[in-house]
Structures are given as structure tokens and as C-alpha cells.
């Protein structure tokens, strides 16, 4: 996205009965000349559940995961969701999120992502260099739109 454009985003939750089957994030990139380019990011239950089976520890339900993706992919547009996303990601109740907790589910959002790739973007938010983000650091990380930009192929 260039400096003369702005981004508008909205979330669409697809359901089958009471079950969320997919979270879709629709981005409208609005350029100064009035031209709009649309981008879509899809987070599917099927892919999340396939990934969850490979993780050796208890993990989030897909419905909880959509609360995390809302914050990660909507950034400052979902600022009120950041504390809940942090709480859900802090699986060891340490009041911090380490790179492993954050990277474990990233392939459901960004295919072929890994902890090494994420570390490159994670480190600037880690102000005390402990490879963990507290709530303030996590909030700054989210508001920068790092995960959104990665999902949109902008890095």
C-alpha cells in the first residue's frame, strides 16, 4: 500500500448452522485517484483443525481462534479485541506471548509461515528483547498491522 492510499477492512463470518466455518477478511485499498483494489484473506475451519491436530498441546477452538484472527488481521480497527486475543494466545498464563505461541497457528492465516519468518517482524515489538510480548508490546505489534501485511503479501 502506498502513502496515498488507505485501507478499509471488514470481517465476514461464514456459518453452517451455529458453527463458524470460515472467517473472511475483505480489504478495500482506496487510492487517492479513487480507484479501489480489493483483497481477501480466508481463514478456514478445515485448515485450522488440520493444523491443530499437529500441535502437541491443547489449543484453541476455531471460534476462539476467530477472535484472535480478528485482532491480528484487522489491527487498530479491532483494538477492543486485542486484550481478549492476548489472553487466548497466552496458553501458559505467563502474561506474555512467546514466538512459539504466536507462530503455532500462523500457517492457518499465512500458509507456509514459520517461527523464523515471524521472528523478523516480532523482534521490533519485543522492546526488552526477551522473545516474549507483554500486552503493551502485543498491542503495538497488532496496531502496526504486521500480520495483515504478511497475509496480504506485503512485507
TrEMBL record:
Q: Where is the EF-hand domain?
A: 77-112
Q: What is this protein called?
A: EF-hand domain-containing protein
Q: Which Pfam families match?
A: EF-hand_7
What are the UniProt keywords, alphabetically?
A: Calcium
Q: Entry's PROSITE patterns?
A: EF_HAND_1, EF_HAND_2
**Organism lineage:** Eukaryota, Metazoa, Spiralia, Gnathifera, Rotifera
Natural source organism: Rotaria sordida
Q: Which GO MF term does the entry hold, naming one?
A: calcium ion binding
Alphabetized Gene3D superfamilies for the sequence: EF-hand (1.10.238.10)
